[in-house]
Each structure stands twice: as structure tokens, then as C-alpha cells.
């Protein structure tokens, strides 16, 4: 479907500047992740029982937050990668010859 991304390119993307929207999305997701993990381990360390709804919601809070943070960190500000038209295989919906 797409080109493989090299490990060095992933590291480079991780350290580049993010767009402002994705930066704030990362901040909010990090807050949700931190609060949910803190609540979970506080209840665990106190030896108390978790409420049933918390046991069902907790994995989604942690997983969704971590996924949002990872996607936002790999989003790079400042342009898109140029695509060589010779490397595109097959026709797409955007080709005018299809109409």
C-alpha cells in the first residue's frame, strides 16, 4: 500500500516539531493517561476493590490515550513527502481517465 518507513525516519519524526493541534491533543491524552493510571494504582495500593465499570473502562482509557499520543508524535509539521508519479501503480479514483 505504501512505502516502508525506516527506523531512522521514525526517530527523526519523533523529534521534529508537531503542529499545534496535535501538540494540544498530546497534552490532553497524556493527562487522561496519567490520571487514569494514578487512580488505578492508588486503589490497588490501598487494597480496595475496583468498581466494575472502572475495570471495563480502564483498558480503553490507557490504550486510546497511548495510541493518540503515538500518532500525534509521528505527525510532522511543515509539509508532506513528495510522491513520484512513476511509482504509483494502478489507477485511483482521482485519475481523470476513469470518468
Short description:
By secondary structure, the chain is an all-alpha fold. It has helices at 7-15, 20-46, 52-73.
Describe this structure in words.
With 99 residues, this protein is mostly helical. The protein has one domain (7-78). Helices cover 59% and strands 0% of the residues. Helix 2 (20-46) runs antiparallel to helix 3 (52-73). The longest helix has 27 residues, at 20-46.
Task: Furnish the topology, listing elements before pairings.
Layout: H1 7-15, H2 20-46, H3 52-73
Helix pairs in contact: 2-3
Using brief descriptors, characterize the structure shown.
single chain; 99 residues; mainly alpha; elongated
Strand segment tally:
0
Shape call:
elongated
> How large a portion of the residues is in β-strands, by DSSP E?
under 5%
**Order of secondary-structure elements:** HHH
Mean pLDDT: 81
Distance between the termini: 24 Å
List unreliable stretches of 5+ residues: none
Main pleated-sheet profile: none
How many structural units, i.e. domains? 1
Class per helix and strand makeup: mainly alpha
Calculate Rg over CA atoms.
Answer: 20 Å
Number of helices: 3
Question: Helix amount, in percent?
Answer: 55-70%
Amino acid at each position: 500500500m505504501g512505502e516502508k518507513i525506516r527506523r531512522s525516519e521514525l526517530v527523526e519524526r519523533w523529534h521534529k516539531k508537531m503542529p499545534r493541534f496535535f501538540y494540544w491533543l498530546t497534552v490532553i491524552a497524556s493527562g487522561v493517561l496519567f490520571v487514569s493510571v494514578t487512580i488505578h494504582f492508588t486503589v490497588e495500593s490501598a487494597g480496595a476493590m475496583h468498581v466494575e465499570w472502572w475495570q471495563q473502562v480502564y483498558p480503553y482509557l490507557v490504550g486510546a490515550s497511548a495510541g493518540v499520543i503515538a500518532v500525534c508524535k509521528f505527525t510532522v509539521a511543515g509539509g508532506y513527502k513528495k510522491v513520484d508519479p512513476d511509482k504509483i501503480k494502478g489507477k485511483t479514483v482521482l485519475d481523470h481517465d476513469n470518468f
